[in-house]
Amino acid sequence: MQSFQVLQDTPQYTVSSYGTSLPVLITETLLQADRSAVISVQLDETGWGCFVCGRKLFVWRFKHSQLTRANQCYRLALPASELCHAAKLVCLFPSQGDTQAPSVLAVSPEGVIRFWTNLHNELAFYERGLDLSGQECFSVTHLGGNTCVLATTSNQMILLSVSSQHMQSQVEVHNLKPSQGMLSRMSSLIFGYSKSHTAQIRRVCAGSDTSEGREVYVLHDDVLQKWLISEPGLETVIYEKQLGTVLVHHFQREMGLTTADGLKTWLLDVQPTSSSVLLLAAVTNINLSTPKLHYAIVEMKPESSMVEGQDPVDSIHVTDQSLAYKVSDEVSLLDCHLLLPTPGTSTSFVYGKNLLLGCSLSPDIGPVFQDINITNSRTSNWGAGAVDNECLFFNSSEGLVAVKMNLPELPSMDESIVSQSRPDQSLLEVPRFEMSHSFLQTSLTVATPRKTDGISKDPGNDHLTGLKAAFLCACRSNLTQAENMLEELFPLDGGEDGYTDSPLDQAVKRLSLELINDFPPADPRWAESVPQDSITATGSLILIHQLEDKMKAHERLVSFLKNSGLWERLTNHSNNTKSVA
């Protein structure tokens, strides 16, 4: 049983200490390290962790079990290097029993491998160097068993197989190359066979272990690959998709922008789930005077269900939170990762050295993004991992902590009706907000036209969709996002106010009619009447507040128009050739 102490307990999340105190060897290293020391941590699902500081590598047991006590700690010396060592270049090979320490393989940034089968003797290790022609090592990913993949910054991938026979350890090396075939052209570009291409590897992630081999996901800039590795010499790229252009179009639509000019996107991480693949992405608009960077979670369909020409993106959720974007800060801003407690969960975490966001993509309550403060002071995250369905983080102040999202319970129908009838708290109040000149895009989740319909050629549809999205943001108290979208859709200096059937007049009229005529999908009595292919953006607005009375929804729309300043700008619209104010 793990001991814990609650550090932060809020309605949105809970932070608690995990396990016992840190081993003395690690505590002493932390006390002696200066501010310039580069520290990184890796937490393995087996309950063992790696702590790297300078050339020191500590492997310790942080999870207590009936057979193994926590806080077992071993100190190892990493190869000499002029570059910074990192925990992501260390791989743990678990022992057959839970009572023994794992074997450890560590690689220096220059490509010197050290392998320990017995952690009790720091000096008893196998060592060999790799000829990387000046490349730097990027990461080491365990594939299960006695194999792992070493990736370099220039996209070379090397399969490492460790063995220990007759009291002698060795590491076999095999360069992974994509098989020839339909994917060879793009793969040759990615893997550096074209000198003009400078794709950078972002992530290597182990997938399922199938009867045909181990699945491995590889992220190179905006290209996602899926490999199948059976054994050295039998590796195949079975799926490959370039996602850059697709993501730009999705971000444009999700942010309610009329143009994609200036949008810059990155893919940062990939995590397979039980039914799909999740990607961590980042986006900014470099054309703005003060660009902001947002993170997003992208859900992709399984490649088995893909057909030629189909949009691979199933859904995309942009975070409410944003960070100031500067080119000089790009490396630190993009050094973020995605962590899932289990492959089938709707909860995930986006984390970086100075960032921790809790994310819930539950279809019942919609996307929720929450800033998480482990302590009240500014601290750093040095590493993370998932163990026994818990997400653990190594914090510079508190050590090892567990973070859990507290998802709100959905009210029953009776509770919903009672809450709506309270005279002292109207769900229809839209908080008043002042329009500012700042232009921040934040998260919105609103139903969009079916992907098979293509892009609408009617500009009026764009204004209507954008107004719906802004209204939805205001209902969710995402006021900054709502004002930014309105500035983009209906600028004050657009020169279209005061005319009959202006874009604003038409959008307000059409949204009002849709709210009035919309099927109430929350009411089971209408279930059979709802068209199968209907677009449920307005339905989502009603569902969010569980409104059964359309008058309340319409009053909320009017309140939104008045508080946003759009009400005063409305003029006339034509109705059967007559002008109506």
- Report the average pLDDT across residues: 79
> Treating each run of at least 4 consecutive H or I residues as one helix, how many helices?
10
Percent of residues in β-strands: 25-35%
Main pleated-sheet profile:
5 strands, antiparallel
Radius of gyration: 27 Å
Structural class: alpha+beta
For the termini, the CA-CA separation is: 70 Å
Low-confidence stretches: 180-197, 409-457, 521-525, 532-548
Give the helix proportion (percent range): 10-25%
Q: How many E-type strands? A: 32
Shape: elongated
Spatially, the strands of the biggest sheet line up as: 1-2-30-29-28
What is shown here, in short?
The protein is of the alpha+beta class.
Topology:
Blueprint (H helix, E strand, L loop, with lengths): L5 E4 L3 E5 L6 H9 L6 E5 L4 E6 L2 E6 L11 E5 L12 E4 L9 E5 L4 E5 L9 E4 L7 E8 L2 E6 L4 E9 L2 E8 L8 H7 L10 E10 L2 E8 L2 E9 L2 E9 L1 H11 L8 E10 L4 E9 L6 E9 L12 E6 L4 E2 L5 H5 L2 E3 L7 E6 L2 E6 L7 E4 L9 E7 L2 E6 L3 E7 L7 H9 L37 H17 L3 H11 L13 H15 L19 H9 L4 H14 L9 E3 L2 E3 L1
